[in-house]
DNA sequence: AGATTACTTTTGAAAGC
DNA sequence: GCTTTAAAAAGTAATCT
């Protein structure tokens, strides 16, 4: 009875592909790579296989953002390693990839009264400033995520470490709102 | 001993100096916004509580003062927008908002979001609209709230749209531009809101 | 008056200021 | 705290036709 039908919108992950990188070399070899040390210490590289964006650092660490799946992260990181190898840069064999953040969207399919929800969840537990942003911000401890609740019934879950975290948090919100008769 | 006393006096001086500066800042901003004494006093109370809880650490006095004033306006039901507070303060709206969230949480102010209704008196007087239009605006806003037409929308935009409609219904029409200017929103926003209100509340607007 | 583009909020890592 | 990346939600805004 809890098919939350979460849609993962973005996955952020980090890994280490080498002990060090010469970003200047990568910038000249990789088409479209952007590197401005005074602007940002990392090199920006975008791929469209599965769409993703990388932030490559001189320390050999890499941040991957933009994929819609956890599986795609492994795919694109693998592709990046191959691409680096092809220009003569060696990389670590089985890099440990850590998913740092998952952003997902969901829909409760009901118009919501955010003022009532603010009181119901407790003003000390939420942030709702329609003057600045239309969504109500609700921070959950277990799983530790942040849920943005909109009057349309749509939700955005940010901060999850796994797809399961996102689904669980939507259920937590759904159950809490339901128990207060706010659905 | 003597050294300890000197230090205590020094700290005391700095603390008092900072408090005096903060209070003068509150006065300056409140005057610029034409806020009544009660709001300034409320802001001063909020600021003092923030000092007592050491919430100023890592934050600028100006920022906390601006946030305290913003909070006080809301507590007194005479809200000013973050943009209005920003205009008379020396800090960015982003910092005022961030500091407001912080002291609001730490001092457990538990403020509900600003109600569009609280903007009606000020906006109407700014448009030289009298009691009848104000009452009609409030009536429209009450209905709008019941029909879930205000959740997630900017309070000033909703208030502006209601006043725009009320002014027409009362035969004292104000243009979207005039209402937009006093409310600090764009004509596009008033248009979007009033169309929604008119449609959902079945209000016929004949121009 | 549309249409477009863009900014508001949230999350997380990276290295450095 | 900031800088950079990506992404959704819905509202508001700036600019162009």
From TrEMBL, chain A:
One of its GO terms (biological process) is DNA-templated transcription initiation. InterPro entries: TBP, TBP_archaea, TBP_CS, TBP_dom_sf. Sequence repeats lie at residues 8-84. One of its GO terms (molecular function) is DNA-binding transcription factor activity. Keywords: DNA-binding, Repeat, Transcription, Transcription regulation. PANTHER family: TATA-BOX BINDING PROTEIN. NCBIfam families: PRK00394.1-2, PRK00394.2-1, PRK00394.2-2. Belongs to the TBP family. General factor that plays a role in the activation of archaeal genes transcribed by RNA polymerase. Binds specifically to the TATA box promoter element which lies close to the position of transcription initiation. This is TATA-box-binding protein. It comes from Methanosarcina mazei S-6.
């Amino acid at each position: 009875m809890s098919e939350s039908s979460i849609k993962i919108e973005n996955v952020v992950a980090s890994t280490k592909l080498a002990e060090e990188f010469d970003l200047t070399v990568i910038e000249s070899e990789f088409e479209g790579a952007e590197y401005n040390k005074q602007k940002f210490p990392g090199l920006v590289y975008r791929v469209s296989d599965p769409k993703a964006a990388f932030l490559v650092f001189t320390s050999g660490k890499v941040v991957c953002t933009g994929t819609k799946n956890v599986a795609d992260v492994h795919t694109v990181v693998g592709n990046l390693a191959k691409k680096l190898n092809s220009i003569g840069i060696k990389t670590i064999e089985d890099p440990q990839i850590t998913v740092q953040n998952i952003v997902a969207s969901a829909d409760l399919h009901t118009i919501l009264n955010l003022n009532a929800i603010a009181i119901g969840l407790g003003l000390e537990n939420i942030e709702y400033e329609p003057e600045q942003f239309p969504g109500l911000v609700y921070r959950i401890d277990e799983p530790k995520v942040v849920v943005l609740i909109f009057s349309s019934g749509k939700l955005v879950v940010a901060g999850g470490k796994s797809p399961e975290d996102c689904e669980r948090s939507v259920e937590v919100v759904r159950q809490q709102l339901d128990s207060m008769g706010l659905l | 001993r003597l050294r300890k006393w000197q230090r205590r006096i020094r700290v005391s001086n700095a603390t008092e100096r900072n408090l005096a500066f903060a209070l003068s800042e509150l006065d300056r901003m409140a005057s610029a916004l034409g806020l009544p004494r009660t709001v300034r006093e409320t802001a001063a109370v909020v600021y003092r509580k923030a000092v007592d809880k050491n919430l100023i650490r890592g934050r600028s006095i100006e920022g906390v003062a601006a946030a305290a004033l913003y909070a006080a306006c809301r507590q007194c039901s005479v809200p000013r927008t973050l943009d209005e507070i920003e205009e008379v303060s020396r800090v960015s709206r982003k910092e005022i908002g961030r500091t407001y969230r912080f002291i609001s949480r730490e001092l457990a102010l538990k403020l509900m979001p600003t109600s569009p209704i609280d903007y009606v008196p000020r906006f109407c007087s700014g448009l030289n609209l009298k009691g009848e239009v104000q009452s009609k605006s409030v009536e429209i806003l009450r209905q709008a709230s019941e029909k879930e037409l205000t959740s997630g929308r900017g309070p000033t935009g909703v208030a502006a749209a209601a006043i725009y409609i009320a002014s027409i219904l009362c035969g004292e029409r104000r243009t979207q531009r005039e209402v937009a200017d006093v409310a600090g929103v764009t004509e596009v926003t008033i248009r979007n809101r009033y169309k929604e209100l008119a449609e959902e509340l079945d209000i016929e607007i004949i121009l």
